[in-house]
Amino acid sequence: MNLYKKTEYMLYNYKDLIAKEMNLTLDIRDLKLNYEGIRAAQYKEHTGNTNKFNSNVENEIISKEKKIEYLESVKEHIQIKIKKIESAIAALEDRQKKIIELRYFNKLSWNKISELINLTEVSCRVIRNKSIKKLQLLLFNDKVT
Question: Could you say which of 69, 75, 83, 104 is the most buried, measured as most Cβ atoms within 10 Å of its Cβ?
Fold first, then answer.
């Protein structure tokens, strides 16, 4: 996928990234609040000597801590993407920002965008192309091709 398309993909999925970050935050909070704890012990079972040094509670805590650590890592990765998109968009001119917002975040048609911006569709697309190329440079620190 070329960088132009990759930039568009990131913009189209910006709102989804924000939702994913929020859901990860809630999942992490839920895991931290809900430890199953000690289960009822059954003494009917015959146990033999074992070298096991941990209990079910310890295993549960370790498992949840690993899951929380993984989710926090995924969340941080998403937060970085969100911040990169936001900082790149902040560098655009107002008209460029508006066109990017309407096209990628609100998913409006070119016809509707041109009405709202009071420009022709062709002019809106030209501004979009320049904006995407600028965003591409900012997001990927790469030369525009």
Answer: 104
Please state, in angstroms and rounded to a whole number, the distance separating the CA atoms of residues 144 and 134. Answer: 8
pTM reported for the whole predicted model: 0.77
Task: Give just the sign of the alpha carbon dihedral 89, 90, 91, 97.
Answer: positive
Do the domain assignments include residue 118?
yes
Q: How many CA atoms lie within 13 A of 95 on its CB side?
A: 12
- Helices 121-140, 110-117: axis angle to 10 degrees equals 100
> Does position 143 have pLDDT exceeding 70, yes or no?
no
Q: Which domain holds residue 64?
A: 3-32+56-140
Give every CB contact of residue 116 below 8 A, 6+ residues apart in sequence: 98, 102, 108
CA–CA dist 106, 97 (Å, integer):
12
